[in-house]
Amino acid sequence: MTSSGGLRGYFVRSENARGFSLLAPTLILLVLMMVIPIIMLVARSFWTQSGMIETADFSLVNYQMFFEKKIYLYVLGKSLLISGSVTFATLILAYPAAYFVAFRVKKNKLIWLILITVPFWTSYLLRVFAWKLMLGYNGVVNSGLIGIGIIDEPLGFLLHNVNAVVLTLAHAWAAFAILPIYVSLEKIDKSLLEAAADLGEGPIRSFLRVTLPLSMPGVIAASLLVFIPTVGDYVTPKLVGGSSGIMIGNLVTNMFGRGNNWPMGSAIAVMMMISITLVVCIYLWLISQVKKRSN
Prior knowledge:
globular
């Protein structure tokens, strides 16, 4: 009784212990659902497979094959470039929307945010299919252009290419970029903008020297929220990308599916995670260097 009472008293008195007790369920779930699967994925990437038989012997053959077959490196680099383009396009679309709600809307901002995010309440797959229908050979875009007389026959380059993948992914992830940018813009002290105007700064210079730097935390968060998951996306490239829009996620899916080569699929997935981590670290380092120079 004394031991249990002393332990209970420790948890009551210790703020760290109480905090850990609240975090414990989340940490346990995180370990079970994320850490353990990643460890199993990394371990399996060192296995070998001959035919349909997997051997749990340590080997680097999968990673050797990854670097020997140029197609893997090409698709990985292509996926990073596509995701970078998606991130840039998403920020270009999201920043004006977030800026408008933060600075131009005076009342009912919550309603505006809800209206912005309502289209994203539908299934991700349905939104991808919607873009496929719009960009298709007989889709809305081609039908509209033919109807107003701009073209005489449907355009075939709207779908099944990299541009279609970038456009679809930029729309699909726009809400995830708008919200963090809006939060950063909303926190900006409006008196700073008034001070800049009093000092003779025009709207453009005030934006570049005050608004944009102060909103960079939201921009960085939005770019990471978009870039990291889109590298491994495989649904959108498969539906609207065609053969020219294949990304690294499609290779991983094929290895775990029709290819039935889980060790090789695990190795490709590990290389994808390592590449994403390196790109993110370089990106954050460059941001920190720019901040140091500006200060």
